From TrEMBL:
Protein's organism: Kocuria gwangalliensis
Protein name: DegV family protein
Recorded superkingdom: Bacteria
Keyword Chaperone among record annotations: no
Keyword Zinc among UniProt keywords: no
Length: 326
């Protein structure tokens, strides 16, 4: 199949036009933009009437940006290249509450709110505050993932909601799809992760001194080290092998292969097409820019592969936990 078109930032969606739920749908689905949904998925979910997403702000050089601002990406890339501070924040509880209230007013019976790993962000905490005193149940799902690993959970939840499933089934679908998704991340340096407080400063310093180009993953919501190649060439080779093995052993028909990048769509597409040719020609290739809220913590040159699971070759098998700051 042909790859999805490149993801472009889109604003968070707030329901509230007074429409009744889609016939048969009782549960609405809410997420945050760390799910890195491809544009075709985003458009489809928004058109379904059961879905909304909230933005997480990014602070670049003292200026607050959201994904829908046209100069946000260029500002982020420049800041990362210059080593200037880039920080991120959870969405305001009031933003989520507005969305929850709109779905309640539209006649939905329940909401499933599907979010970025609580180990990486305070978004789930914002959602807990936002759901207080809402007159319908709001079930929170910690995907323990990020990027399209989270996005696959969102897709499963939306599909279950449109099939008329109840809150338990919709939440379970989101959790299972995110848990099954395989995540592999190649970063050029640990420095950006160190600045964001995602890894131990000593580990970052040693990694830089030894020219380590680590391959990372997510396990139980935390960043973990899969392997520690000592050159860019070796890291690229192991990235392709590990992602390819997970893809070739994926147990679903035509699995999704997502390739994330930071301002390098051509390089990402080349990686994805090579993996399809070598390992799984029937897979569905999706090339997505990492949202700024994630790019800010991994840095320029980062590539990530997301494989729809389950798979007989899980990427994080036998991992070592990377030291993470509390």
């Amino acid at each position: 199949m042909s790859p999805e078109s490149e993801r472009r930032p889109s604003p968070g969606v707030t329901p509230g036009d007074g429409r009744c739920p889609v016939p048969g749908a009782r549960v609405a689905v809410v997420t945050d933009n760390a799910a890195a949904l491809p544009p075709a998925w985003q458009a489809e979910f928004e058109a379904s009437g059961v879905f909304a997403s909230v933005e997480m702000p990014v602070l670049i050089g003292g200026q607050l940006y959201t994904e829908d601002e046209s100069d946000m990406l260029s500002s982020l890339v420049i800041a990362l290249a210059e080593g200037r501070p880039v920080t991120t924040s959870r969405p305001a509880p009031g933003q989520l509450r507005t969305i929850y209230e709109a779905f309640r007013a539209a006649g939905f019976e329940a909401i499933v709110s599907v979010h970025l790993s609580a180990e990486l962000s305070g978004t789930l905490g914002a959602a807990r505050i936002a759901r207080q005193d809402i007159d319908i149940p709001v079930r929170l799902v910690d995907t323990r993932s990020a990027g399209l690993g989270q996005g696959l959970g969102v897709r499963a939840a939306v599909r279950a909601a449109l099939a008329g499933r109840g809150i338990d089934d919709v939440a379970a679908a989101a959790s299972a799809a995110s848990a099954d998704a395989q995540v592999l991340i190649q970063v050029n340096s640990l420095e950006t992760l160190r600045r964001g407080g995602r890894i131990n400063p000593t580990s970052a310093m040693l990694g830089t001194m030894l020219q380590i180009k680590p391959l990372l993953s997510l396990h139980e919501g935390k960043i973990v080290t899969v392997e520690r190649p000592v050159s860019q060439l070796k890291a690229r080779g192991r990235f392709m092998t590990l992602a390819g093995e997970a893809l070739s052993h994926a147990e679903v028909q035509a699995p999704v292969l997502g390739i994330h990048h930071v301002s390098d769509p051509h390089g990402a597409r080349e990686i994805g097409e090579t993996l399809l040719d070598r390992y799984r020609p029937d897979a569905q290739l999706v090339v997505c820019e990492l949202p700024a809220v994630l790019s800010a913590h991994v840095g320029l040159g980062t590539k990530a592969a997301i494989v729809e699971g389950p798979t007989g070759r899980p990427i994080a098998h036998g991992h070592r936990a990377a030291p993470v700051e509390p």
